[in-house]
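Translate sequence into structure tokens.
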Amino acid sequence: MGMARQSDASPDLSGDPVSAVPVLVTRPRYQAESFASRLVARFDSRVQPVIAPLMAPEYLSPTVPKGRFAAVVFTSAQGVAGAVRLGASLPRLAWCVGRSTAAAAAAAGFETRSADGDAKALIAAILKDPPDGRILYLHGVDTSGDVDNQLQNNGFSTVSLQVYLQKAIPLEGEATQLLRRQGPVILPLFSPRSARLFRAAMPADTRADLRIAAMSAAVAEACLDIPRSRLVIAARPDAGAMLDAVESLLAAPPPP
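Result follows.
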């Protein structure tokens, strides 16, 4: 899905079908396209997704230590993609932070177990059914949740490898034009880093009325210096709850 072209009509949040509300999706392109598709499937012409990635993955090639591992841990679909690119013999069992990561791992041939939550839920799930042996945690350069230390503090022998990094890329083109125009723009943010990157990339002459859907309290905290009229936190750290958060912003009346 490409970046949507904007209308000159001023969108509103009242549910009036006359104009769609722009939703600026800044996730890495693959995830952005997936979320944009879900936006359209749920809200149809009420929203106008604009895909403008702030990050792009670059995969790394660390050496996997020799010896048996009982399980691999993934906290992102990019971690799964990085694991596949290693070309190493990996354990079949994969603990995954959430359903989308588990779906990516299953597609890559892993036997998955999903915590359906955040890093805290992932650690709790592993503690309830611990693997018999070492854990291989494959992740990005920038992480949140301190999964590595939490695993080790709970007695798991853990090898942690960085298999990708997310390179920051600038906002440009239609995304910056949208931000420079008056009118509401819904901004779903899925990580603290994406919130910080967005703040740094905002045009100095931004005039848009930003309404932010934050995936977690940590993301909301990273949004504190982003000028906005509304901010809601998703009930759960998953795409379904983010769609619910977008819906609440669509239903909210305009500010006085």
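Note: The two ends are 35 Å apart (CA to CA).
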